[in-house]
Design goal:
The strands form two sheets. This protein has a six-stranded mixed sheet with strand order 7-6-8-9-10-11, with helices on both faces. The chain has a five-stranded parallel sheet with strand order 2-1-3-4-5, sandwiched between helices. With about 375 residues, the chain is α/β, with parallel strands linked by helices. The termini are far apart.
């Protein structure tokens, strides 16, 4: 059996979240784990995360748009909707700001990331935003950009802010996402979760929110982490389908499988269905992209937790505008939502979850201020 991985310190240090604490299994070891009262605690957390967003949670004041700025938006790779959509949103936000925005397909290749940052420096860009790109993989280039006077922001990357690293980082709550997934699975298995976790260390944020979910499952004394396995994006179409099927067949008690992001399981879920395993195992993923929501509608995926990707991109652009205006970046409070069979009908088919309200209009109110 593979070793269980501890939650990294970066996750533990995050600010407290508004979701209810999952206390039933972790704070009272003498409690009757898996009882109706315990499950109700998890159900409350999950149902809170399933609610629609009804109000704008971002900033309401800030500098007007700084005209004529040149910004590069480097996204992880156009092939994945979770990277492609933020790129499109960056172009839209850039138009609203009156900026020259260049969106670059990173092709999931650190060499492309490095080259793009150097080109931004050479072209005299004012700033660059990394989308789902680990700054540690391009540490020297990020430092060079900062030394050249560029603002370097990041979104959905969980990068550390420092003088030689990124200038700011925008991220939907890691804690809320991981806890929502764990709570849903514990609720739906009536406190008897036996989980297999697939984690992706190449992406900071997916790695972190999956580890939060894993930690919550491990803290529940009536639950068990059966096993965990790391994977890369290159494994999604080849290794993961067989890995998922083999894991379920190996342990007939396994009833939950959680993977770091939706796209990783798009090939595995059909394989699991063909093998008759989806009747036994509830699968949960993160991101809330369109194909995952379609799988929820079909009953093949139990849940996906999404941070509002396009909203988060506008938030990252807002912080870029603040820093280019000589102000500090602010907490943007990008919302999350747990999407399941219970609330999938509230989301328009054919697209991802975007945040339920007109967030773009709220940012334009700030940027258009005279």
């Amino acid at each position: 059996m593979l070793k269980k991985r501890p939650v990294r310190m970066a996750v533990a240090a995050l600010a407290a979240t508004p979701l209810l604490l999952l206390a039933a299994c972790s704070e009272d070891p003498g409690a009757a784990s898996g009882s109706a009262a315990d499950t109700a605690e998890y159900q409350a957390v999950a149902e809170k995360a399933m609610e629609p967003v009804t109000e704008f949670t971002g900033p309401t004041e800030g500098p007007a748009a700084q005209p004529g700025k040149k910004v590069v938006f480097l996204t992880c790779g156009f092939e994945a909707e979770g990277c492609n959509l933020p790129g499109k949103a960056a172009a839209e936000a850039g138009k609203a700001l009156g900026w020259d925005v260049k969106v670059v397909d990173g092709k999931f290749d650190p060499r492309v990331y490095s080259r793009t940052i150097q080109e931004a420096i050479d072209d005299g860009a004012d700033g660059i935003i990394l989308d789902a790109v680990s700054a540690s993989s391009v540490k020297g280039q990020v430092k060079a950009a900062r030394d050249a006077g560029l603002v370097v922001g990041s979104y959905d990357s969980l990068n550390e802010v420092s003088e030689s690293g990124v200038s700011y980082d925008v991220q939907a709550s890691i804690e809320d996402q991981g806890k929502a997934m764990a709570a849903y699975m514990i609720w739906k298995t009536e406190g008897a979760t036996n989980a297999y976790v697939l984690n992706s260390p190449e992406f900071n944020a997916p790695y972190a929110w999956t580890e939060v979910a894993q930690k919550e499952i491990e803290s529940c004394s009536s639950c068990e982490l059966v096993d965990s396995q790391d994977f890369t994006a290159g494994d999604a179409a080849t290794r993961l389908p067989q890995l998922a099927v083999t894991a379920a067949r190996k342990d007939p008690n396994l009833n939950v499988m959680i993977a770091s992001y939706d796209a990783a399981m798009l090939a595995a879920i059909p394989s699991m269905k063909q093998a008759g395993i989806l009747d036994q195992v509830k699968v949960g993923t993160f991101n809330g992209v369109s194909p995952a929501l379609d799988l929820i509608r079909k009953g093949d995926l139990a849940a996906s937790v999404g941070g509002a990707m396009e909203w988060g991109t506008w938030a990252a652009m807002d912080n870029m505008n603040r820093m280019l205006a000589g102000e500090e970046a602010v907490e943007q409070n990008v919302p999350i939502r747990l999407i399941t069979a219970e609330n999938i009908d509230s989301i328009e088919p054919g697209g991802p979850w975007t945040g339920d309200i007109d967030y773009a209009a709220e940012y334009q109110k700030i940027w258009d201020a005279k």
